[in-house]
Structure formats: structure tokens, C-alpha cells
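[Solved] Which block belongs to which protein?

Original post:
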Amino acid sequence: MTPPAILTSSRTRLFENLDRPGQMLEHLGPNWFASIMGTGIVANAAATLPLHVTGLHTFALIVWAIASTALIALVAAFAAHWILHGGNARRYARHPVASLFYGAPPMAFLTVGAGTLLVGKDVLGQSAALSIDVVLWTAGTLMGLATTVWIPWRMIAARAHAAPLPAWLMPVVPPMVSASTGVFLLQHMDGRPRLVLLVACYAMFALSLTVGMFTMALIGRHLLRGGTPPLAAIPTVWICLGLIGQSITAANLLGGVSAKVFSGEDAAIASGLHLVGIVYGIVMAVFGALVFATATVLTVRAASQGLRFSLTWWSFTFPVGTCVTGAAALGTATNSAGLHLLAVALFVLLVTAWAVVATNTVRGSLSGRIFLPA
């Protein structure tokens, strides 16, 4: 029996750009984990948003489930990529640009882990969600610390003198994500372990901020001299905003939770950390507004020049998501309704960007085009 024409057409279009389905794994780089980051931050931002709207929590739960399922599938696919196409995998790991995105896997682990504790607990239960987050946070933190040391060291050892790119920030931001997401674990700890984790989070905050701001200075200097990235890489400019938003989130969340660690005679320490988070957040928010405006101008110009979809478009999601969580955390710390309103506005922008990028990713995956090297 001849199948209906519509089914024949659908089957023809599926993976039409691939010679065989196995090609999906040949060029599966670590940049794919940015899609998990971008999806997971939507769920986390929705869960921490200072807004109570019917259906928002359900939306967060659904998006978290998508991110979690995608993370499991991608980890399996990435492992298969290394096993079946080890030559390509090692070549990407040595590539001066592709290797930078090894910062994405740890941030994907950390983002999904935090979401599991924030919204996944409603499905899995508090105990199971906490255990999963401990595993994902620990794995993501260790991987993130490794990329922060390994990739910059490898670039120095290789004497790579290429122009500084926004993607240089990818391997150094993970410790900042660990610092902010570690707060959710702190709330389930007590005694000395809680103090140790708080100190560790502040240490990772300082590490990521120091290396990140130095890197951003190099990137900014290059941009001011007219050294904009290639057209296809313009979306990566938004990565700079990710460090800013995530650091504001971390500074204020850590400052807020410090009151549970320092009390009595040490209460002044908690008050000081709370104040530091607010001052830091205000200063960085001004800087973030400048970076946001710059990234917007460059993106609009790139769009007018025919910017085509690629996985770099996921740079539009996670950085904006950190701005949502940053504005929400700073708004809560200062009891500012204006900042909470800004967080809501940024969340609308985040969901819009995520919907566009996710739709294009699914479309490109079904045709197979997105699995081919650029």
C-alpha cells in the first residue's frame, strides 16, 4: 500500500541534509551544552521570579523537564561521540575556539541541578531532588574549576596570540555559576559544613570574577579598536553579559544566605556581606546596562547583514537569564519593586529569545543541517 503523500514528504525531509543518521555524532561539540544552559536558566528564572502568576510554576516545571531530559540524552550522545569519533573529539578539544566551549558542560550540569532543587522537587520529592543536585553541583563544580585552569593554561602554553573573543569567557564563568547555585545547597545544610561551603562559594566567586574581568578587559579593548567578531559569532558578545548577571546573582544570594551562617556575635559579618552584595550589584548593573546596549547594537547590525541561525544563537538565552536572576536577587536585597519589574521584563525577553532559538534548533536538528560542521 502506497503511503500518503504527506507522510512520504515528511520522511524525505527528516535528516535530509545528512548522508546517514550516524553523522549526527561526528561533529557533536561541547557547544551543544549551551542549549541545556539556555533552557535550564528559563526554568530557574521562572522559579525565582518575584511574580506570582497562574501557570508560571507549571511552565517552569515543564521547561526543567525538557532541560533534564535533553541533558541526559546529550551526555550519552557526547560520550558516543568520543568513543566512535575520537579523532574529531580530540581535534575539537585542541582547537583554539571550539575548546573554549568546554565551559558549557559544567554550566549545564549546574543549571539543571539547581532547577532540580527549585522545581524538580515537586515531582521527585525533596530528598531525591537534593541528592541529584548534590551530584550535579559537585560534578559541574569540579569540571568548571578544571576548565578555568586548563583552557587558559593551554592557550598560554600554546602561545596562542589570536584576537580575544567573547567566547574566551566560557571556560572561566562556571565557578561563578557554582557560587550562585551553591546557595540552594547551603539552605539544606547546617553547622561547619555550611560555613565551609559558603567560604568555598565566595572563593569561586572571586576566582571567576578576577579571571573574567581581566578577560573582559581584553575583549573590550579589542572591540573598541574595531575588532568585532565574525558575523556568525556576533551572538557570542552576549556571553560578556552572562558573567555580569551571574556575579550580581551570586553576590546577593550569598549575601542573603550568610545570615543563616553568621549570627549572634558574628551577625555583623552577615550584614557586611549583605551590604557588599548590594553595592556590588548596583555598580555592576550600570556596567551591565552598557554591555547590554553594546550587544544589542551589534546584534541588530548583524541581523541587517543577514545573520543566519547557528548554535551561537544560544548566547542570547543564558546571559539574559542571569540578568533576570541578578535583577530579582538585587531587587529582593534592596526591597526594590522597580528591580523586580525589570526582572519580569527581562524574563519576557528571555522566554521570547528561548522560543525563537529552540524552534530553530529543533528545525535544524530535524533536517540534519545543524549537525554538519560550519
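(Second protein starts here: sequence line, then its C-alpha cells.)
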Amino acid sequence: MALLNRPVRTAGSARTGTVSRETPSSWPGLAMAAAGVAVAWGVHGLVPGIPMLTASVVLGITAAHLPGVRATVRGAGRPGLSLAGRRLMRIGIVLLGLGLGLDQVLRLGWATVAMVAAVVAATFLGTLWLGRRLGLPGDQPLLIATGYSICGASAIGAVSQVSGSDEEDVAASVALVTLCGTLAIAVLPLLQDPLGLSDAAFGRWVGASVHDVGQVVATAQTAGPDALGEAVLVKLMRVALLAPLVAAVAFSLRARRTGVRTESGRRPAPVPLFVAGFQAAAALRATGVLPAAALDWAHTAQELLLAAALFGLGSAVDLPSMARTGGRAALLGLGAWIVVAGVSYAGVLLTV
């Protein structure tokens, strides 16, 4: 199917190296993504409780169904929006590695490292199994399992790059994981006292069970600075497992698709280039050679790129199609939420 969607070149353009007039331009879609990011940034500025990435997904879905804009989203804007969802996502994930303080993560101790690894494995495998049993279409079980177990939309985007997932599956998974992560901001603080968690233990629980980094911060800060510090460190530990998980998924798919080649005629790499870039960025951060200003710039660029990518993915959502599997997806979201919250709670009790 990918070959059927490749741009057609004329004989003349093949000789000169120029693209024919039939090749659609990416600029209209990229301009729409940039406008969506600007609006999402404004929404986050007005309502800090709404993460910019969440706003970007919602705005993309809105644009795809808004009369007067819908035709452009599904027509002239589609090439650029798809490009944003793929290429900008990969660059943003590489920059995500610069926010990973491996030295800080290791200070929590090997018991906590083992706990987080167990939470990630149990959440990923349990959600994937439940999604298959519920009969969710396409790659939604794989993507939702990734989002719940690692870091929400960023992890979904990373895995979708190696699985070649349909844009609608990616967008639907991002929407579900984002919704459940947002609900955690309101629900988890209410459970701290009934569950008998100290501020530090509550922070670890939040870091091990909430999906997006912004949602972790918003949830943990309700219990004070000690909870917030523990939550961020545990969350960074989960993010550190993104590269191994994506590499494992890529290896598994590669083993199942023996003989499959990319459009260029080469076999797919066992470890995707952007995953290697993520690891290299994390290693560079660990050296301490980058000044704080450079890290701040990289964080801002990462947020903007991921926001543009998520706007592009959101614009591919077709709500009528989502409604047909909405009940099963909601059931999977609830089941996965119970798994990650329960396993992480048990892990925190064993390690504090």
C-alpha cells in the first residue's frame, strides 16, 4: 500500500531531480500544524492545568470535524499534517532524551529501578492482552499498552514509527490515554489519605502510574515539593525504558515480517534511528557538558515539535469510526488504569 501512495514523477522530473506538479505540497498542512500549536500554547497559558500536548490533540480532532476547515484538513493539508505526525514526532522524541537525567534516576536505588521495570512490563503485557481479547482494531492494543506503560502520547508516537500504525489508530490511542491521564489529576490526590501514603510515597505512586510528564507534575504537586520531586524522578525512570521497549517492538515486528523491505529497498534497521538518537541524547545529557540554557531550549523545541505532531495525528481522527469501538476502548482504558495503579501501588509499598 505504501508504494501505491508514493508521489508520481514524470520522465522529465526523474532526469532533472525535480518533483512533478502532481506531488502534493506539505506546506499547507505544516502551516495548519503551526497554527494549532500556537493556539494550544495560548490555551495552556490561559489554563495551566491543560497540558499543551493535550490541547494540541483536541484541536487537531476539532479541526478535522469543523465545517469550513474539514475539507482542507482532509485535502490539501493532509500531506503536511501526516508529515508532522511522522517526522516531527521522531525529532521531538530524540530531544526528549535530553530531559532524561540518568544520574538522578539512579539515585533512587536498584530496588526502585526494579519496581518501575516490573510496573512497565505488567502494564504493557496486561493491557496488550486485554486489548486483544476485547477485539480492538488495528494496532490500538499495542499503542494503548505503550502509552499507559511508559509516557503517554510520546511513547505512542515512538512505537507507531516502528509499527507503521494507521494514523487513526494512533490518534484514537493518544486520545484515550490523554483522557485517562487527565482524569488522574483529579482522582489520585483524593486517594492519598485513604491509601495511607506519605507525601514521598504518593509522589512515587504518581510517577509510576500516571502517563504524561505534565500530568505527573500536575498530580504530584498537590502533595507538596517532596511528592513532586519523587514523582518526577520515578517518571524519568519510566521514560528511560522507552528506548528498550521501542527496540523490542521493532525487533519483534521485524522477526514476524521477514523479507519486508522499506520503500528505499533496504531492510528495516533492528533499532530505529530515532531510538538511537534518543539514547545518544540521554547519554549527552549525562555528561553534563550542555549548559542549562541549551537544555531549556531543547525542552521548548521538544514541546513544540511534539505538539505539532499530535495536532497532525489528531486531525486524522474520524469520530464516527471511533464511536464504533468507543465502548471497548473505554473498557480497555479502565482496565489498564486499574492495572498500572494497582501494580505501582504494590511496588511503592514494597520499596519505601
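Accepted answer:
You had them paired correctly. Confirming on the second one: Residues 326-351 form the longest helix (26 residues).
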